[in-house]
Amino acid sequence: MGDLIDQLRTGLPAEAVLTDPDVTASYAADMASFCERGAPAVVVLPRTVEQVRHVMRTATALRVPVVPQGARTGLSGAANAIDGCVVLSLVKMDRVLEIDPVERIAVVEPGVVNAVLSRAVAEHGLYYPPDPSSWEQCTIGGNIGTASGGLCCVKYGVTAEYVLGLDVVLADGRLLTTGRRTAKGVAGYDLTRLFVGSEGSLGIVVRAVLALKPAPPAQLALAAEFPSVAAACEAVRSIMARGHAPSLLELMDATTVRAVNSLTHMGLPETTEALLLAAFDTPAPAADLAAVAELCRAAGATEAVPAEDAAESELLLQARRMSLPALERLRPATMIDDVCVPRSRLAEMLDGTAAIAREHGLTIGVVAHAGDGNTHPVVCFDPADPDETRRARDSFDAIMALGLELGGTITGEHGVGLLKKDWLVREAGPVAMELQRGIKAVFDPLGLLNPGKVLDPGLDPDLGPGEVRDPAAGGAGE
Amino acid sequence: MGDLIDQLRTGLPAEAVLTDPDVTASYAADMASFCERGAPAVVVLPRTVEQVRHVMRTATALRVPVVPQGARTGLSGAANAIDGCVVLSLVKMDRVLEIDPVERIAVVEPGVVNAVLSRAVAEHGLYYPPDPSSWEQCTIGGNIGTASGGLCCVKYGVTAEYVLGLDVVLADGRLLTTGRRTAKGVAGYDLTRLFVGSEGSLGIVVRAVLALKPAPPAQLALAAEFPSVAAACEAVRSIMARGHAPSLLELMDATTVRAVNSLTHMGLPETTEALLLAAFDTPAPAADLAAVAELCRAAGATEAVPAEDAAESELLLQARRMSLPALERLRPATMIDDVCVPRSRLAEMLDGTAAIAREHGLTIGVVAHAGDGNTHPVVCFDPADPDETRRARDSFDAIMALGLELGGTITGEHGVGLLKKDWLVREAGPVAMELQRGIKAVFDPLGLLNPGKVLDPGLDPDLGPGEVRDPAAGGAGE
């Protein structure tokens, strides 16, 4: 370990190498529950590509695993440290290098905070859509690692659709450039897209070329109250089937509505079983909202009221944004799931989740990116109570099983990390797993990059600290 | 070879196995110039996934290379046969299996013709944007193989953005399912996107889940005449910088305009140096066109006239669509390039292409998806004249060199195939090439899938027919 620190220091300034265990322990985990975390040997905070290359060369020479990190707002444990690892935090590489309104691109370092980029491009009349809930904290590098989504996705898609090209430091320290800065380009296999969502297991993203959109008009929202979740889902179905393109279409269940009221005293309608929020950023949003209000009423909404102006709209969206903090206050801990199902199965997913909550004797509030079929059941529990904790974990798994049964996926936007590794195997099946492990072995033959995450079987428990699997044994390819 | 045919026939109906050399020769090549073609041992036309699996199992057992084909409208030689291969034509797998307006997806077999799908989804009020020039002939499988684009891309992007999930028969006959039918999904590495643009070198796509958009309003177009290419490109720059979202933004140079007039007697303005076509499919296209006309005039347009109605619009677009047929009449043969540069370098690209035409003593007409910076210089030549042919080939390469020098890519939407293999190495560089070859080896360890295309070094010339490289020698990984 002395070797490791000494060698890291030959290419990094003193302040970029943290070894105080109290300090390094604070880098041990992201925001996921139920995920093991280890004790890092060292945390490094490089500021340049060359420094990142030095870190990876050192890690490869000494066979030390590396865990890349952004703001650690992830919800799957992908950023959790493992014992004896180098935590490679990219947060100091936080420059917006370029914003170009003609090319409609931004070039950024990985540590740029999502909201910082969003505001910077807005000054040029441009729009970077991906807007995870944690957008004021999370970094673009982390967003790329997990292929993050947000409220915007129903109209604008996820992070993957905005990544045109990358500079990546490979496990052995070599620098790879993928993709392009042009609007189109199909030369060779799409390595860029392979890195998006790979959770730091294939390489370290050190620069990204991102696509931007022209800034749309400010969005205008409506809220609709429904006497049942099924009725709200029927409204979602008909809104999407009629070809509407809302800029958001969100659902809050009764548990969530009451939790938000309790936290904010916003006075949301407590008698509603489901609150649907729709917004449009079209040139004539009032007309679109009127059409959607009509569809909501036809589906059984008891109220469907468009906001009068941007301020009232913002208040409605504020209620949605407070959902997670509000649910987090119900019990000492929460666990946020991320199952995405076909839109037409949304009601079954929500009703099934309610049944799972009852069966497990738990409070589970649900917020959903309803227009995408992407639900976030929030399982509320007390980690001090072993039985409740077990039920929480069981219900979390039951929710994923239900999602797969309904033709959905175990993760719409949060990624696999540690939390859903076993579930990835069930969703992807053995053929896809074999190919994915083969790809991992091509990029990271020594198994040093974020080992044990996504699909990696993890470090061999028989190996001591600093040792890795013998790559010749083909551990990543079975 | 008798073995091969016999074994293929055990799992395919008689009419699906073509061996008459006159017939199989007609499957030897796509529409690219300057690409070698071989003589297939056999052409198979499966109608089911199980039949495709049988073909691949047979090919693997006998170590026979397989060249997958759609409509052979490709422009890079990716579908060209190699001596002794199985040509695997997917054109008989041409069913649209499902169109779902709520999920906004279509599920199709690979042989569905692009225009057939487009018309089928239009009946449901939906829109499948990718619209290559060959859309009346080309298949969705071929579009996926080359990540095809079209006129729509400036607003709607390329094929890659519409492929949500795939069923793929692997080289050894195993069936892989990738991706999802949900709006979002980030479980594991993005294998779906890896197949898009892989030109049949990683597996045989036998089913695709495609994303659809709500059908937009009919588009309305304008034509603007410019006294110079530079002025037209300045208009493109300012249209994009101002945040406009045209549904197409196309440029025709003077050579192309005159060629179209000569073919169609459309009476396009022969004195113009560049004709720019813009269209909008927004709710109020006339207002958008008026704004764009103003920007065109500010950039130096001598005329900028919006169409009065859809019929007049259609006539303008017809002129654009006739560009390739018109240029093809100028000389006995043409060679179509596909260089995409940053929008702000478009004028340099076009002026540089004109200079290359002068230097090589050739006619090169240019049509461009100007809004994307994607140019299609069409090199016109007489293949019966060896010197002119040599100059044509040289100019083609000079155009790609210029594209790379301007920060562009050698292919915006046509792919690499045989034609641009050497250029892919220059664009991607050695690190990316090594990784791409590693991926190829994971999916196709025996090197049987479309060998010699994209990045594969090709069959070892020392091997006899039906033999392949020894995979243990790692031929695909050097």
From TrEMBL, chains A, B:
Q: What is the top-level taxon of the source organism?
A: Bacteria
Output the SUPFAM superfamilies linked to this UniProt entry: FAD-binding/transporter-associated domain-like (SSF56176), FAD-linked oxidases, C-terminal domain (SSF55103)
Region Disordered, as annotated, extends over 456-478
Q: Which InterPro entries match?
A: FAD-bd_oxidored_4_C (IPR004113), FAD-bd_PCMH (IPR016166), FAD-bd_PCMH-like_sf (IPR036318), FAD-bd_PCMH_sub2 (IPR016169), FAD-linked_Oxase-like_C (IPR016164), FAD-linked_OxidoTrans_Type4 (IPR051914), Oxid_FAD_bind_N (IPR006094), Vanillyl_alc_oxidase_C-sub2 (IPR016171)
Q: What molecular function terms (GO) are annotated for this protein?
A: FAD binding; oxidoreductase activity
Keyword tags: FAD, Flavoprotein, Oxidoreductase
Q: List, as start-end ranges, the regions of compositional bias called Low complexity.
A: 456-466
Identify the cofactor(s): FAD
Domain (FAD-binding PCMH-type): residue spans on this chain: 36-215
Protein family (similarity comment): Belongs to the FAD-binding oxidoreductase/transferase type 4 family.
Entries under PANTHER family matching the protein? GLYCOLATE OXIDASE SUBUNIT GLCD
Name it: FAD-binding protein
